[in-house]
Specification:
The complex is a heterodimer. Chain A is mainly α. Helices cover about 65% and strands about 0% of the residues of chain A. Chain A has 2 domains: about 210 residues, no CATH class; about 100 residues, no CATH class. Chain A is built from 21 helices and 2 strands. In chain A, strands 1-2 form a two-stranded antiparallel sheet. In chain A, helix 1 runs parallel beside helix 3 and helix 4 packs across helix 5. Chain A is globular, with a radius of gyration of 25 Å. Chain B is an alpha+beta fold. In chain B, about 30% of the residues lie in helices and about 25% in strands. The longest helix of chain B is centred in the N-terminal third of the chain and has 49 residues. The N and C termini of chain B lie far apart (about 100 Å). Classes of the chains: A mainly alpha, B alpha+beta.
Amino acid sequence: MKNNRIAIITFFSGLLISVVSFAQQRFPRPDFESDYLVPSPLAPEPRWASMEILDVVILLIVLVLTSWLAIKKRSRRGILYLSVFALIYFGFYRNGCICSIGGIQNVTLTLFNPAYAISLTALLFFVLPLIFALFMGRVFCASACPLGAIQELVILKPISIPSPVRKVLGLIPYLYLGLSILYAATNTDFIICRYDPFIGIFRMDASFEMLILGGSFLLLGMFVARPYCRFLCPYGVLLNWMSSFSKWHLSITPSECVDCKLCAHSCPVDAINKPVIEPVSNRKDINKFILSILILPVLVLIGGYIGSKSHIYLSRANTTVSLAELMITQPELKNDPDHIDVQTFLASGKTMETLLEEAAVIRSQFYYGGWILGGFLGLAFGLIFMGKTIYRNRKDYEPDKGNCVSCGRCMDYCPVGKPDFDEIMKQIK
Amino acid sequence: MNIQEKQKTTWRIAVIAGIFSAIVSIIMILNYWQLQRSEPLENELLANLVEQLRKDTSNEELKEDIRRLDLMVRKAYFTKQWQIRAGAFILIGGVVILVISLRMYQSYSDKLEEPGSEDRHLGRELMAAQKWIMYSVISIFGLALIAAYLSNDKLAEPYSLASLEDTAEDPEVEEIAIRTSDDAEQITTESESIEEPNEARPLTEQQEEGSEQVTGETSAAESEQEPETVPETAIAESKTGSLNYSKQFPSFRGPYGLGLSNHKNIPVDWDGATGRNILWKAEIPLHGYNSPAIWGDRLFLTGADATSQFIYCYNRNNGEVIWEHPVNDVARNTSEVPRVTDDTGYAAPTVATDGVNVCAIYATGDVVCVDREGKRKWARNLGMPDNHYGHSSSLLIYKGILLIQFDTNKQGKVLGLDVSTGETKWETPRNSKISWASPILADMGGRTELILSTSPQVAGYNPLTGEELWSIDCLMGEVGPSPGFSEGIVYATNEYAVLAAIKPGQQPEILWETNEYLPEVASPVVDDGLLFIGTSYGVIVCYDASNGELLWEFECDDGIYASPMIADNKVFFLDMGGKMHIFKKDRTMTLLGEPELGEGSVSTPSFSDGRIYIRGYNFLYCIGI
């Protein structure tokens, strides 16, 4: 408990220092008596290449240290300190950018747009956490991700979400991932960055709406641990996949589980699998499993079909498509001098035919993208459903490798290996 | 303090922090609501006062009231914005204390879980999960399908082309046409000898007419009043680089960038202040130091600032803007805006045209090509030029290849792009330092060479392949002047370096050197054995091109940045104050005139059909008799 307090004090001291340093306005208020300084439109401003390398090195160090702390040292306190550091460095100092979560879009755009090339830094930020997840579990979520860290630190009285609700909400990240890839691939928008609820807090320049959104997530996070990580984060989907195969994932107990059940409710993100001894002989369950396998390609096709049908409204997020539709449905806007989009188009000298051709090309990209998006969602949902038809017997309390964020809380609850273990065992008995 | 007391204290702190945070939140919400309702531009009182002022324009007291109120409204708006931002910080502080105190309170009241209370009915849980996942997937897909069937494809709907493209009512377009026309008319009344300018017409009308001319559908009578049509032969000639090309003024310093113009009957007398021999003048919307390029009746130049880039096409007969083309959508690998100095700006390079294509480059590294109607053919970014003053090297087009000298602090290179597609036909790296000079083309006895000047070398290239043919080191410093060329000899110079006459070839040699008077920006011009130089400190010099002997010199009041031009057997030096010093092209000095533009200029004058076109700092002038 004392250690926890030290950790909290350290975090908030760091936070306060950051706040004080930002307490002066980032840009001077407009002074009408003298020259007004136009604020830079870039936030954060570009960094020197050497500093970008430093960011990668720091990420690597944090990931290595977290892996060591989670798997070898088994120190929840150390992981907490690292998350405080990550929050201050990657969050408040680096303004939440560069970010592995947003890296999904950079990678996608690189694959689909030959005119765009991802920087090595962005690529490493995207790849390194996945590689670590493949071997060590989601150590990135534990302490390197500033979005995870800020949510981790506000967890107050986490409640356990019923499993069915968790599973249903867990579908959202797949949808978000699919949409963010679709929009990045069609050069439409980087929606992960646009709707990042915490970026405005890190940069201390949140719009009112985003401040409310970020605040709401933090407020909710006091009682529902890490709501963004669990029910929205698209990168979490990829980490989940990788972590499911992790060989050296952290374990709750350092040796043999004594089935004391102390850790049963320790996980704030409900990522501890309980011991199960149930027979797999139920004919009905086997039928369900077979049915789910058979239904999988059907789901992919249905998803693809619905995705392709959705391309019209999905493509409206694209500025060229929306402008073309606007020009068709409201041609009178060409006489509205305040309508910047329309006036810019008219001033560009582009003809309506050209605009329509461009919009048609983009819409056709959305059509094929819709097939892929829908198919992907059908496959993902089908596999999730299939996973729920399978019973896995286990005799110990084990972390759910895919969903566990390696925060290490459960390790603190496990008495095995603790100096006063025998005494606790007596108490239990 | 025992545990209970600590618990009580932390609880009190949490309550106070919670109430404080709630109050701050409420204040912020109210403030935001007020802010949304107090847009300075939509202030009713202010609008009423402005309306009153329209009726009584001489009411000084009312003007002062409006200014005061406007200031007050804006101050209130920005103060509220600041309050919201400051409130956010205070709120974060409050929430931080709330969280700390609640966590501490909780830690004082933590109780151990009762082991063995967990439910082990996994089967039931999985059943429920299956059911809910199924319902959710059906809901998601169902909603998506409903949304898909409810959304109409508006792109497939018919649209009225006429209603969309009739921009005659566009107030801004109309304003341009009227302003130009007024200017032209005003000047006409002051000068009896000039021809009647064409009537001002809306931009789109001219575009339509222009496009009709290209298809050859207009009658001969109509075409007399229209901008000149580019004949097919001209297009072919521009690609082959034949002589008709040299009758135009297609690039910086005229054909091949040599500073020579074939046009005759160039006036030597005008006055910008009174409008004498000023046929028209037109305001240029965006700033730039580039010079006009002319093909037929169309005159092209560019303007740019930190946020916008434009190509402008004027009717060179009356100064009407035929079209303007924005270049703000070129994909770049950085969102950074280049830092340029005021004396270079964002649009220093002059465009190049071959009558079919008009190509421009900006300080951002954006290169764009449009057709003569202003329709985009292609655009690309060459990468932000690492140039501490701003990129200024102008373009040339030769046999369908756009030639770009791209010497920056980071690297030097010269490129040849396919003028039709923008694809790189060749690219030659140069072991050179940064340069602000422009390329020239030189006829070396049947073979045309591209000549570039930088520090330290002057080099010749094959303009069709980019192969370096020769190179010689003779310059130093920050090279601004472009090379001069005449009768097989290249003349390269730079301030604080030398003026060198170079005989190109496999073994290039320096024939002579001098360093008496050297230009900083203006390029040398050479013709009939005479070499002319204008210095930034205002001395005009004539050298014997064969041996570097100083023949005569002349001192003006202002420095010279615009490059001298030779036309009609005269040499034209425009100083920075806008005074043109006109000399007879001769071994002895004969000053023919010193007419004033009435406005400063650093742009090189252009010539066409007995007229001079000069870009001042703000206006474009057409001078003629």
